[in-house]
């Protein structure tokens, strides 16, 4: 049987990315996963963790018949990796994994990518300005606007703004940005998550959604008029809801996604609900990209205590997003 092929980037080599990738043969999913990593790193980490994993070099035209095999597309490290210890000389390696996954998607070799965590700090320390997976993939694919959405625990939460200081958020929430984010969210809920008529709940920015202007004017000046325009265009978008009540079950039951104004407004609820099974999905890209919802956890690397549930969920989510012919 022929399975769709996903590129799995193993992320920061000193972190838990290689550890959790070693668990992929146990997931028993109908997909061919190709791990982008230094094959020697993967073998060394398997020995360190005492995991009996049959690791083989990836051959595009020769899919293993045994699903317990771990295929690795060898991408060499600049220097040997010490588990749990960042090395600035290996920072370009992490970027190379993403570039190769993207090239494979363009060429039709891969149906999408799933990313293990990287460490933004060490990439910046290497002299390359880098704000994250999402922004980098948007840049190399020439995508003008992307949207971060996390899914898990029965919830989908997308964000209008992502990694901004709180003091800067209000100035960034413009009618143009909000309208663009809602339209991308609506489009990808339809075309990637196969929801025919998406229903989107939108939070306010301020406590109590501004309380009719007594706690801020962003709802009156920006959010409400923008939502009204989108509703007039036929989108089922509702709000603004106070962020402290929008996650009540009786409100959520009629929705497909919640759109929060900023990172820490929506994601703590989702991460509490998902218990390490959350998935980060990048909407707006011209390809499928999902990711784990956690960081590199350098202190857990090589200890055997890293949990791979989020990676399994991310691979399953990518599979669900594939078009039927895949």
Automatic annotation (TrEMBL):
GO terms for molecular function: 4-hydroxythreonine-4-phosphate dehydrogenase activity. It comes from the Bacteria. Gene3D superfamilies: Isopropylmalate Dehydrogenase (3.40.718.10). Keywords: Cobalt, Cytoplasm, Magnesium, Metal-binding, NAD, NADP, Oxidoreductase, Pyridoxine biosynthesis, Zinc. Pfam families: PdxA (PF04166). A divalent metal cation binds at residues 163, 208, 263. It is found in: Cytoplasm. Coiled coil: none annotated. Catalyzes the NAD(P)-dependent oxidation of 4-(phosphooxy)-L-threonine (HTP) into 2-amino-3-oxo-4-(phosphooxy)butyric acid which spontaneously decarboxylates to form 3-amino-2-oxopropyl phosphate (AHAP). The active site is located at the dimer interface. This is 4-hydroxythreonine-4-phosphate dehydrogenase. It comes from Vitreoscilla massiliensis.
């Amino acid at each position: 049987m022929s399975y769709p092929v996903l590129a799995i980037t193993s992320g920061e080599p000193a972190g838990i990315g290689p550890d959790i990738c070693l668990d992929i043969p146990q997931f028993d999913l109908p997909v061919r996963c190709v791990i982008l990593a230094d094959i020697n790193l993967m073998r060394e980490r398997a020995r360190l963790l005492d995991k009996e994993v049959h690791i083989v070099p990836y051959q595009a035209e020769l899919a293993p018949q045994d699903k317990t095999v771990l295929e690795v597309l060898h991408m060499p490290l600049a220097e040997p990796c010490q588990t749990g210890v960042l090395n600035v000389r290996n920072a370009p390696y992490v970027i190379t994994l993403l570039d190769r996954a993207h090239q494979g998607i363009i060429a039709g070799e891969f149906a999408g990518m799933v990313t293990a965590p990287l460490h933004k700090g060490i990439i910046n320390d290497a002299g390359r300005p880098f704000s994250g997976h999402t922004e980098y993939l948007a840049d190399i694919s020439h995508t003008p606007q992307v949207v971060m959405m996390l899914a898990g625990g029965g919830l989908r939460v997308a964000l209008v703004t992502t990694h901004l200081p709180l003091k800067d958020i209000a100035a960034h929430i413009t009618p143009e940005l909000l309208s663009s984010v809602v339209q991308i969210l609506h489009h990808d809920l339809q075309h990637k998550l196969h929801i025919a008529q998406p229903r989107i709940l939108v939070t306010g920015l301020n406590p109590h959604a501004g309380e009719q202007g007594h706690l801020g004017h962003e709802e009156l000046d920006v959010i409400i008029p923008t939502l009204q325009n989108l509703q007039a265009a036929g989108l089922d978008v509702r709000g603004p809801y106070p962020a402290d009540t929008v996650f009540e079950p009786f409100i959520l039951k009629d929705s497909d996604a919640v759109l929060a104004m900023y990172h820490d407004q929506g994601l703590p609820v989702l991460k509490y609900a998902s218990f390490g099974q959350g998935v980060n999905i990048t909407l707006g890209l011209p390809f499928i990209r999902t990711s784990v919802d956690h960081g590199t956890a350098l202190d857990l690397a090589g200890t055997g205590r890293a949990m791979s549930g989020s990676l399994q969920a991310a691979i399953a989510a990518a599979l669900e997003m594939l078009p039927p012919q895949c």
